[in-house]
Automatic annotation (TrEMBL):
It comes from the Bacteria. It holds the Pfam family Glycos_transf_1. This is Glycosyltransferase family 1 protein. The keyword Transferase applies. Residues 187-264 form the Glycosyl transferase family domain. The lineage of its organism: Bacteria, Bacillati, Bacillota, Bacilli, Lactobacillales.
């Protein structure tokens, strides 16, 4: 029993192949699995889940009702927490962490970590209203606070809590994935219909205001005035995709931009 790894219940919410999930997976791939394991607790309506990779690393995936279905969510998490007897719950879902961490406290889990990855979103009044309503409650249930920067932590947990107890955990990046590879360059350009003569600028990320792809497009519009053979490669999905497609059309850049959906 003493040789078994410590298991952390990792609350992921709805997995859609986003940046937070990528960061958590980067950590997971590089930790010592003989000492620490993750149980990934995800919403049933998740769309992109690295099931094979998690299984190969010894992890487990548990599906629960989304938090919007509060009664079912409470039932599913309560059953899971009590059955697996977790000692640590680490919630990655920002302001929404109050929902799983409330249940974790009710179940007597001693270590409850709230991890914030974002702040308010300009022009997203509905999301901001919900976030503003939940922010005052964000310090009730956690025993520990975590964020990738001090400012991100301060936004959710407040200045005093952040100065006293915040753990700043920088986002993990597997740099080997981004090493230059000539064969991959040739293959990918051919697949995407991009000539070897094209100067390519890449942007990877979910299509939301935080990633600022609208600015990328307006900047690219100036770049092609100097480098006419330039191409812009945007990889990702998100709620602003239609807006970006329309902006590309309005800027007469449709034939200069390649939109690529999420890829493994």
């Amino acid at each position: 029993m003493g040789n078994e790894p410590m298991t952390i219940a990792m609350i992921m919410g709805k997995m859609m192949g986003g940046g937070v999930e990528s960061v958590i997976m980067n950590y997971y791939k590089h930790i010592d699995h003989s000492k620490v394991q993750f149980d990934f607790i995800i919403d049933k309506d998740s769309t992109i889940v690295p099931e094979k990779e998690i299984a190969e690393l010894g992890g487990y995936i548990y599906q629960v009702a989304p938090y919007q279905q509060l009664r079912e969510y409470d039932r599913d998490l309560t059953t899971l927490f009590k059955t697996n007897n977790y000692k640590i719950v680490h919630s990655q879902i920002n302001t929404l962490s109050i929902f799983p961490l409330r249940i974790a406290k009710k179940c007597g889990i001693p270590i409850r970590i709230a991890h914030n990855h974002s702040t308010g979103a300009p022009k997203e009044w509905r999301k901001n209203w919900i976030k503003d309503a939940l922010r005052p409650l964000s310090t009730i249930y956690p025993t520990h606070y975590m964020s990738p920067t001090f400012d991100t932590g301060k936004w959710l947990f407040g200045k005093k809590k952040s100065e006293q107890n915040l753990i700043v955990l920088k986002d993990a990046i597997d740099i080997k994935k981004f090493e230059y590879n000539t064969a991959q360059r040739i293959s990918m350009r051919k697949k995407l219909g991009i000539s070897s003569e094209n100067f390519v600028i890449g942007n990877i990320g979910r299509m939301v205001w935080q990633k600022n792809q609208k600015y990328v497009l307006t900047l690219f519009n100036k770049i092609i005035q100097r480098i006419p053979e330039a191409k812009l490669l945007i990889v990702g999905e998100g709620p602003l995709k239609t807006d970006l497609l329309n902006l590309a059309k309005n800027l007469d850049l449709a034939n200069k931009i390649v939109f690529v959906p999420y890829v493994e």
